[in-house]
Amino acid sequence: MALHAKAKAEAGYRFYALYDKISREDILAHAYAQCRSNKGAPGVDGQDFADVEAYGVGRWLGELALALQEETYRPDPISAMSRAHREILHLARLLARVTEDLPSEKLDRYLVRDAQRVIEAIEILVRTHTAQEEDIYEAVAERTAA
User: Fold this and answer.
1) Residues 103 and 134 in one domain
2) How many CA atoms lie within 13 A of 69 on its CB side?
3) Phi and psi angles of residue 107, each rounded to the nearest 5 degrees, phi first
4) What is d(CA 102, CA 112) in angstroms, rounded to the nearest whole number?
5) DSSP assignment of 32-87
């Protein structure tokens, strides 16, 4: 019986014997290739394919396999949060530049629209940032409780 069929048939079944499989470098390399070909998005730690390739795919997969085997792997949510900080700062500077260029006598509708878009983007980033902080606090609380 295929794994997906077993999982659907027996919702309470736990596949404990699979953990040793996901930590194998050949399985991780295959999964990486699949995600790369599907143009997968960065994970919770904010790492994307460019980051991994700059670090070295083989080195990254080897370290990931070891961390999975030792059950010490934890994604780094701080890196994703710092990315959000940089984006917020960039948008705030852009907004400041846009507002400095606003003429006092006549407003250009395109300039107003651009300012509105920047403000909306900042609002979205702040909401995302808040959600990430909540996730980080929960993760820290879980680790300290354990």
Assistant:
1) yes
2) 11
3) -90, 130
4) 9
5) HHHHHHTTPPP-TT---HHHHHHH-HHHHHHHHHHHHHTT-----HHHHHHHHHHH
Of 25-39, 45-59, 77-91, 115-129, minimum mean pLDDT range: 77-91
Q: Whole-structure pTM over 0.70, yes or no?
A: no
Q: Is residue 77 exposed (0-12), middle (13-18) or buried (19+ Cβ within 10 Å)?
A: buried
Contact between 135 and 78 under an 8 Å Cβ cutoff? The reply is: no
| Count of C-beta atoms within a 10 Å radius of residue 5 | 9
Which domain, by its residues, includes 39?
Answer: 20-74
**What is the rounded distance in angstroms from the CA atom of residue 81 to the CA atom of residue 136?**
9
Residues 84 and 109 in one domain: yes
Query: Is residue 7 within a helix (H) or strand (E), and if so which, with residue range?
Result: helix 3-9
**For residue 62, is pLDDT > 60?**
yes
